[in-house]
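Please decode residue identities from the backbone states below.
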């Protein structure tokens, strides 16, 4: 009788938020502190920004390549955001889950809906809110990655994005990054211990009861 016989299927841990609310920063914080967590790398048709690295931050492809992947069923989810296509490659995610590794997703509400519809038992969804609209605008402007028009478009879309909070299992108001990362870490830990995720638990308990 050995507790190590209890295994666990991995979790799809989804982080979503309006642009600038901090989901990517929280994701980075989780990756730095979690050894059994891998980042899902999205395929996108948008151009590379600044210091982004192809294959690490995103997999950058043209629209024709993206469309072929979608037609072949190679994407778990896909969405169009600000004129660019984004999607999650199926193979790496399914392999990680089967091996008991958790996969972190930094995606929007559209992708989250698709993942939850395709694999509801595997998905845990966390929505990140900004502490205020003013703070959200300040964060977007301070990034200096987008033009003034793009920042305005992101702010205009934020209200619609935030209306989808009701579809999520957990909410974080990102006032302080370190606290937000700690909360996300605690949520992930609790979800890993859910009874229905543990494979071999019933047999382990039966042997415990039999002595």
């Amino acid at each position: 009788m050995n507790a190590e016989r209890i295994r666990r299927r991995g979790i799809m841990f989804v982080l979503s938020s309006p642009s600038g609310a901090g989901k990517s920063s929280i994701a980075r914080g989780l990756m730095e502190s979690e050894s059994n967590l891998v980042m899902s790398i999205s395929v996108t048709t948008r151009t590379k920004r600044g210091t982004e690295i192809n294959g690490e931050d995103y997999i950058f492809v043209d629209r024709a390549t993206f469309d072929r992947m979608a037609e072949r069923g190679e994407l778990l989810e896909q969405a169009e955001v600000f004129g660019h296509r984004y999607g999650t490659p199926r193979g790496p995610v399914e392999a990680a889950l089967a091996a008991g590794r958790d996969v972190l997703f930094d995606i929007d509400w559209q992708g989250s809906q698709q993942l939850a519809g395709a694999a509801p038992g595997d998905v845990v969804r966390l929505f990140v809110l900004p502490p205020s609209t003013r703070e959200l605008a300040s964060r977007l402007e301070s990034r200096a990655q987008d033009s003034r028009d793009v920042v305005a478009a992101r702010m205009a879309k934020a209200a619609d994005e935030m209306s989808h909070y009701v579809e999520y299992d957990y909410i974080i108001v990102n006032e302080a990054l370190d606290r937000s990362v700690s909360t996300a870490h605690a949520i992930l830990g609790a979800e890993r211990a859910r009874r229905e995720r543990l494979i071999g638990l019933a047999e382990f308990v039966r042997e415990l009861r039999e002595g």
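Observation: The first helix runs from residue 23 to 33.
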